[in-house]
Give the backbone structure.
Amino acid sequence: MSGSRWRGSPTGRSPASSASPRAPYNAILRQDPQESDARVFRGWVYLERGEVDRAIQDFREVLRQDPRDFETLRAIGIAQALSGRKADLQQTIQELKRVNPGRARLLQQLLKASRPSR
């Protein structure tokens, strides 16, 4: 799999001051469509802009390369939680448990995030 193993959400704008925060990631992906970190970061950009379906699509493409990538599964869970997709989130939580059962705290946070605040 291309790219490093560190994953996280970029905050604010992309590192390049371009018109589109996706532009630097799109450029990388044109050169190497298998570059997983660029795809994950672009997914976070989509998610931050409210484009949940496109974010999940990018995250799922990374999972095709590495189905046990916990961080990408977690990103999908976050997208599902933020968009209220509870049934999908439950399925993702089950996948996360299979991949890394020791991360129960994170799973509980995903469940809590999926519930409406009072």
Notes: Helices lie at 23-31, 36-48, 52-65, 70-82, 86-99, 104-114. Residues 1-18 have pLDDT under 50 and may be disordered. The radius of gyration is 14 Å. The domain at 23-114 is CATH 1.25.40.10 (Serine Threonine Protein Phosphatase 5, Tetratricopeptide repeat).
